[in-house]
Amino acid sequence: xxxxxxxxxxxxxxxxxxxxxxxxxxxxxxxxxxxxxxxxxxxxxxxxxxxxxxxxxxxxxxxxxxxxxxxxxxxxxxxxxxxxxxxxxxxxxxxxxxxxxxxxxxxxxxxxxxxxxxxxxxxxxxxxxxxxxxxxxxxxxxxxxxxxxxxxxxxxxxxxxxxxxxxxxxxxxxxxxxxxxxxxxxxxxxxxxxxxxxxxxxxxxxxxxxxxxxxxxxxxxxxxxxxxxxxxxxxxxxxxxxxxxxxxxxxxxxxxxxxxxxxxxxxxxxxxxxxxxxxxxxxxxxxxxxxxxxxxxxxxxxxxxxxxxxxxxxxxxxxxxxxxxxxxxxxxxxxxxxxxxxxxxxxxxxxxxxxxxxxxxxxxxxxxxxxxxxxxxxxxxxxxxxxxxxxxxxxxxxxxxxxxxxxxxxxxxxxxxxxxxxxxxxxxxxxxxxxxxxxxxxxxxxxxxxxxxxxxxxxxx
Length: 461
Ligand code: TRP
Fold this sequence. Notes:
Blueprint: H1 19-26, E1 29-30, H2 41-44, E2 48-52, H3 54-63, E3 68-73, H4 81-95, E4 99-104, H5 106-113, H6 117-134, E5 142-146, H7 151-160, H8 166-173, H9 181-195, E6 208-213, H10 217-230, E7 233-237, E8 243-247, H11 267-283, E9 290-292, E10 297-300, H12 305-321, E11 331-335, H13 361-369, H14 379-385, H15 393-402, H16 406-417, H17 423-448
Helix pairs in contact: 5-9, 6-17, 7-9, 9-10, 11-12, 13-17, 15-17
Bound molecules: tryptophan.
């Protein structure tokens, strides 16, 4: 399939694992060379492999400025190990100081899986939020809401619908004339999920990061594109260095930006807007601001890539003061998918491919014993050639989920390759650790059950 495009369908069953191709094709940034404060297991092991604009979030964190984390859950079926990866990241961002918002995608679940809103609520609380509590998400710093009962989410989705069309949906999602309209609306609601935490009512303008599996990237591309289209001020890199800021005159801001309905230019108005932009930039400490209202641009030759993000935020603030939406494109991080127990895709609809967080220990033991192995067919051969931990599910699950100690992991990796550890032994190591991990989780779930209601935002009670 060389040269063919990777197609990512958030509702489909196909799953590409050609991650470097995904990075190239979708313009993600690699996590290599990123320095993170107290990197988690998923970061240290390269499992979180890509991002968009994560610098912006890390920058805010470093400066002690606020930032938000948003994730969503689809209330259908049982929560499994794969789902826990996003929660690990949410927890990491929360510990760094991010405020957390969790969308229960009850509208999406109803539209795409036929789950009633009532059932969706029950599943969300009993199956997902109770596990989030057990996994250590702090209810004091988390707000859970339902798509169906937060009007601003739906309103944003509707308003931004004006900035896209069916052609774009066809190219992003592969929709066609036969696509159910609920399926068209679901991504627009998700756009509302992702953007609403930065509205005044829900925390105000600040960077928002959305940790997801790559299957959700189409929604992020859509959201980022829509946010950018609403922006009144475009901040671009200068030709050789610095940044250049231009106006984006649109139907709903033309008058404020000095374009009179009769086609004339209201120069005073335009100059006032430029003065406002300049004053925003001066607040950031720049002294080489070249303002050229006639040409419609402002240039800041000394601004660096890092400054660009601060300039964007400052100008969004200014845009808001003039009556614009002032939407900042969300940041995102992407993790590799954990392989299914069978060696294929992990899927909640195929219990044999995954470990559910409610599985009892004998079930887990049985599942791991049957898992796809990277060992050789006979013990002799295994001792001679060694096993392959890269495809060994028991090893991978320790790496992804159950083993915290990097040096121990490196040791068993080497010993497996050298044939010193047999496939059955690797499975037993995994079973031992999985039993401890899940045993602890189940105990925590009982202990934190009373906290579930504390996660709910006031519109979710
Ligand atoms: N579409 C997501 C899923 O299928 C759920 C979801 C809804 C979501 N809104 C979100 C995920 C916002 C991340 C951010 O699981």
